[in-house]
Amino acid sequence: MPRTAHDEHHWQTIAQRYELEPGPINLENGYFGRMSREVCAHYLEHVAFINRSNSLHVRQQFEQGENVEIRRQLAGLIDAEPDSIAFTRNATEALQSLIRNYNRLQPGDQVLISDLEYDTVKGAMRWLAGYRGVEVIEVSHAHPASFDSLVQTYQQAFTQYPRLKLMALTHVTHRTGLVMPVQAIAMAAREQGIDVILDGAHALGQIEFNLAQLGIQFAGFNLHKWIGAPLTLGFLYIAPERLADIDPDMGEFHYPATDVRARTSYSTPNFPALMTLPLVLQEHRAAGGSAAKGARVNYLRNRWVSQVRPLPGIEVLTPDDPRLYCGITAFKFIGRDQQLMADRLLKDYGLFTTTRAGAAFGSCIRVTPGLATSAADIDVLVNAITELSVD
Ligand SMILES: Cc1ncc(COP(=O)(O)O)c(C=O)c1O
Hints:
Blueprint: H1 8-15, E1 25-26, H2 37-53, H3 55-60, H4 66-77, E2 85-88, H5 91-101, E3 110-114, H6 119-132, E4 135-139, H7 147-160, E5 164-170, H8 182-191, E6 195-199, H9 211-214, E7 218-222, E8 234-238, H10 271-286, H11 289-308, E9 314-316, E10 329-333, H12 338-349, E11 351-352, E12 354-356, E13 364-367, H13 375-389
Parallel strand pairs: 1-11, 3-4, 3-5, 5-6, 6-7
Antiparallel strand pairs: 2-8, 7-8, 9-10, 10-13, 12-13
The chain binds pyridoxal-5'-phosphate (PLP).
The site of pyridoxal-5'-phosphate has 11 residues, from helix 5.
């Protein structure tokens, strides 16, 4: 763990870059992250500027080179070539474009999802049944999960369903923060000739990874969770040698079929948000990038999980294997109504969390610290869970 992860003074100076509304302690930073004050101010300036200059700047500057440079910088964030990425408005749009336009499926083929996928991804994969005539296989992961159990669930599915051609895989599930062993799963899939579409929404900016090393050729991301960009920015990634396996989106013609940008819908983007991105990426790097951000939120996660896991009446759902967790972790008050308990955390202790349902193990409370969260905030959570566990 980098030394700075538990250096409260260091992280206080970072926390001061963010403006916080007075109110409860926010432990639900998983929905989207804050922009720093500087990024927010820069964004607002761009909003005003684009509003003043209207299409003049967009047509004469943005579209004549500024956008090329922004795309180049974004590709650098994932060590990819600019011609492998296309901007979208969010991760859902990126992932749904990949799923909709993946053209290697024949009627009777099988596609795979697990209980831990994000709902918009599940929906799109299920939709393939009618659109492409495929059979949708749905598996549930063992609980509690281990590195081996996660890989085995897929290996068993690959054996049981020999017509599998495509699967969705979520790098970090939004339900519990479980980090999937992506490299091992992608390798097992490749051996069976199964393509993987990776949902990287919660991984980007929180986990260090390299798509080529992971063995991933198709992926979707957003930039508003852990990168610190304004809302409305995401992107899709297609390994250049696999571009032909994703069709242009719904007859898209603004770019040639050899251009990855034809793989998602063409529309007027949020220019001010895109123009803010270079500063966002600069700040991300200055804060130490995913390595430092990830280490900090992991430290905060371990601070509460280590004290709460042994409590009777509490089940922490996310494993402690360092390969399998990040800053997001979920727990349960055993045998209680989780929404009611989340409400009590808020009303009695001023702690804002969120409940998540939809996994095979049922409903849970998700805790997501952010870059403005202090160790003292986490201690309030530990005290609250300890008291409520015997209440
Ligand atoms: C795992 C995961 N995938 C996809 C998404 C969708 O992201 P977006 O809101 O950018 O479409 C989310 C959002 O919370 C997520 O947690």
